């Protein structure tokens, strides 16, 4: 993948299709790997590369054999490079498993794990991978004696307190004087688009559900947005670029944020939505664009609730679902609280908990690079 | 600002320059204000406007006098509108004070307040406004007996735990066997650009500083970025659009995020930076763009540390500085730990704490709108 040319001195990256890209001198110089420039364990730089001369040039490049090279720059710096380290920069997923969009055909077993089994290191790594691919995992046998969801949250990341505290209660009790009352369904939505930052990952733990309704619903916005993009590219573009105003008023706070409904990450890849039809305000555009925007958001809502995409299932006692609050929308069907108790607990953790753990675990599991390195140098 | 035309039925918004913009029917219909459509206290909708017909039209508009109108739509809905509510959509600041960029000429008194005085409601509102305008506030007389910064943080928002816990310690002690050691300076930076989400607001509380060095430094990226934009528009554009990879490796986690160094909000307004020269990786571009990008980031670093922009000051015992972690960069000058103890405590809160409180307090302070409203209707 990386090729060293000795005269004139150049280093190239070659992709799978054979296209060569020259790696600029500043790019290379900043990635020098000597212990005096780079701290081994943290991979943190010991110099400030922003201060390098902008006209820095590569003056010599020597292939040392294997994946090793010696590069010399016009500022006098010379150093040995393990070219394999450059691969990190070309990894579109930054070390994470590629997301696998799903629809309602999803095999439930593939996203369900036993909580107690995750104390095993390999099982935990595999559960992280499952969560990262699907944006959701369902854990069974989480004890219902107290706020055990906080323990689960702290295993995957750090629980993030809000005005509800460390976790919140979702419960209803049967009340004989309110027989006609049926708890309303909640259409698929993401939580708190009016917050900065938006909660990253939600955990919902069922302590007890004695009602026959109140099914949990989940839907993958990655799959739905892709269908919208195919059906209506212009509508998709509007939802991904024109910010909507979200507002929420509560005791002592008024929260307002503007953000597009379809979220693209810094690399332009769609990774989730901000979707809460009770809280958003159509942005001001001309009549034509307003209609196009509205049609796209209406179609998005239809697809989120469509049986091809939405799954509905009873979250049983002791079951906990953990999902990316922006990638995977959640909701529930209606239920009759007079049938019995229904009690769930919820909390949020930051998105970089599972990703941070996953990368570290995968790296630990790799054959030790330092050893390999020494051998290659000897051979060169 | 809002004008109702009865035939043909149209509603217009007029800006300060006299430019009229027609408000589309869907935009108006979604903002209906009857109690059966909109919950008064929370201003939350009781219907899903995404399901409206995209070809909805305004069929009648009647000016009722004052700021009141009756609008009728092709779906049969008719409702009275208080036109003043539309102003929220045209408020670029969403109810917040306009940020006031500052340089090293800033009058210190204007960002310094007494912590104990903030128990007064008006003083608290005024402190929030100061913080929101400058991105920083310094509080004096915060007691040094224990982790009182958590109390300060909970007054302005919610303390956000990280792997350091609820707060972290920054301290050094004199050690007779290490006389030569000088604690290194920290150039201006923002914290944790490799996290998702990035910490929003940082609190740093000085419990004691017996050293003569170790001055705290702060610099406003709003002022600095504006100078860069004037000097080098193309470099500014590159820093604001091309994502940089940030990486941090710690015990058990490897965190990677890609984001541009200059951050634009959803409306395209610059509101902060991600700046940490030990942790970023130059993105792969052609040679020319690489040099242009590098020149711009180097200039940005020069300006951050320039005496025209950076302030240096001793943070005294019992003083606490609270600053927007992305708008205002922080650092410290070198110090000699052998001169005495230096002990600070730090924590993070979310960015929507101060903004959410400020909007609610300002709204409370307004003449009661419901009363006003009734009077206008009577008059009409």
Return the domain count of chain A: 2
* Biggest interface, chains and residue tallies: A-B, 83 and 83 residues
Main pleated-sheet profile of chain A: 6 strands, mixed
CATH architecture of the largest domain in chain A: 4-Layer Sandwich
Q: Can you identify the CATH superfamily of the largest domain in chain A?
A: Clavaminate synthase-like
Number of DSSP helices of chain A? 9
How much is the average pLDDT of chain A? Answer: 92
As laid out across the biggest beta sheet of chain A, the strand order is 9-10-21-13-23-11
The proportion of residues forming helix of chain A, as a percent range, comes to 25-40%
Oligomeric category: homodimer
The 3D shape of chain A can be described as: globular
Would you tell me which CATH topology of the largest domain in chain A applies?
Double-stranded beta-helix
Question: Strand percentage of chain A, roughly?
Answer: 25-35%
Which residues of chain A sit in consecutive blocks of at least 5 with pLDDT less than 50?
176-180, 369-380
Number of strands of chain A: 23
Gyration radius over CA of chain A: 26 Å
CATH class of the largest domain in chain A: Alpha Beta
The secondary-structure class of chain A comes to alpha+beta
Spatial separation of the terminal alpha carbons of chain A: 18 Å
Family (chains A, B): Belongs to the gamma-BBH/TMLD family.
Protein name (chains A, B): Gamma-butyrobetaine hydroxylase
Domain Gamma-butyrobetaine hydroxylase-like N-terminal (chains A, B): 16-82
GO molecular function (chains A, B): 2-oxoglutarate-dependent dioxygenase activity; metal ion binding
